[in-house]
Amino acid sequence: MNTPNSSCTILFENLYDNDLALKLFNNRTIVDNILRNVKGDINNRLELRLVNKSFNLAAIHVIRKENRTVVFHKFNRCDRLHKISPCPDCSVHLNSVKLNKKNIFQYARFLKQTMKIMVIKIRIEDSKRVCCMITDVHQVIHKSLIGSDYDKVEEFVGIDQISFSTCIPCEKIAANCKVFGPVQNDMFNAILRLKHHYDVLQVKDMRLYKLMILNKEDPTVVEDFINSNITCSKLTIFLMYMYEKEAFGYSLPREFLDLLIKKWNVKTVEIVPRQDQPIPYYFHCNTDFIVPKAKFYVDYWTQPRSKYTLDGVEIDLQLTKVVEQQIKNRKSLFDNFIANARRIFPSNKITVRFSKEVCQEMMSQGNVEDFISGIILMTQKDAQPNSHISLKLYPEEVDAPLIDSFLRENFEKKFDSWNLETVSDSSANLPAEKCYQFFNQSTNCKIIFYICC
């Protein structure tokens, strides 16, 4: 039986006697459209290089373009007790291609030396440090994919997934790229003296607390960190560890954070609760000495409001174990979380993204109205005049018509101070997105719902 690609090749061979076919398959626009619709991984495009010169050049162009961004993901949990080397169960995906310890270096060299790709973005996703290939990925990035082109890399995120401590190649990338993180203390110390601006800089809550603890012994630690020569437009903070005993015990060292935002000239802060993890064994330290703290779980009116104003605040709500537990206990999702974020990071512009997993857990066809109403009540706590809040939902496709019906027909009845101004549809994009914009004339506030399916 012929595969789709082999059938395609046979078809091309039969058409080669036809001058019209030659003109057709030498047309760059047509060839590009054909390659754009080829399914599968890089191997399917490599086969089409054999059709003719136009296909060869176009295929190389597509491969180079697709691999300008390199994503390592789907790390397969291997058995560390294996006595066999390399581990037969160990694998990782580089973009769409599944690789193992035997072929990862060969494939990376093929991309760099044969295809001559220029990597500008590197992302490592969710290795959880359980796969023995994290060392290979680290070496592949620097030795095979980047080499001496570290100054061409614009984005390097997920570094903590593969690197436990500093290395000179990582420092070189960090000192030149625009998006970097999460920050690791020993790596970052090497570039603090350099004058550099980041579009996005990522940091974990644990790093901030660790610096505060080190500062007890050496009072210059925090000062040197804050007074570095770097600036960043957007600071992303991952909330990963529970430092408080309360049910939703995320917190941050308040004064340190305020100084960091001012000194680094931060314009936007992004808050991302990540999958909850126990505090590492080497970090079982009492943080009660750190006063004040920015706490996301207290009654919001007890939280002092910071004295600066940001251009924007983004909150990316993920389905952590804490959220799951609150849903099971039928507690209001992040009861004071949004309001506290407003006080810790004052801004007239807030964006809240409810991940697909959160929407699936909390929304069903029977409670769409209650879910949307609950979101509105949550976001209106401590709301300020002239504010603009965007809510991005990723519901199941079957729930989208129910949301549409409620927002168009019943929202204004339930919240009579809000008027539906516009509804727009960008179904040409993927995922398809509908936008509903509401306006409150008495407070001059806007709420925009983005329903993404």
Please give the number of β-strands: 17
Gyration radius (Cα, Å) is 26 Å
**Distance between the terminal alpha carbons, to the nearest Å?**
37 Å
Strand content: 15-25%
Structural classification: alpha/beta
GO biological process, one term: nematode larval development
Protein name: FTH domain-containing protein
GO cellular component, one term: cytoplasm
Protein model, in words:
- The chain has 453 residues and is α/β, with parallel strands linked by helices.
- The strands form two sheets. Strands 3-2-1-4-5-6-7-8-10-12-13-14-17-16-15 form a 15-stranded mixed beta sheet. It has a two-stranded antiparallel ribbon with strand order 9-11.
- Helix 4 packs antiparallel against helix 5 and helix 16 crosses helix 17 (400-414).
- The protein folds into four domains: 4-65, no CATH class; 67-162; 192-347, no CATH class; 350-453.
- It is 36% helix and 22% strand.
- The protein has helices spanning 4-15, 19-24, 28-36, 42-48, 53-66, 104-114, 134-146, 168-174, 185-189, 205-217, 220-226, 254-263, 321-328, 337-344, 356-362, 368-379, 400-414, and strands at residues 69-73, 91-94, 97-100, 121-124, 155-157, 179-181, 196-204, 230-241, 251-253, 268-277, 293-295, 312-317, 349-354, 388-393, 419-425, 433-440, 445-452.
- It has 17 helices and 17 strands.
Keywords:
453 residues; alpha/beta; 4 domains; FTH domain-containing protein
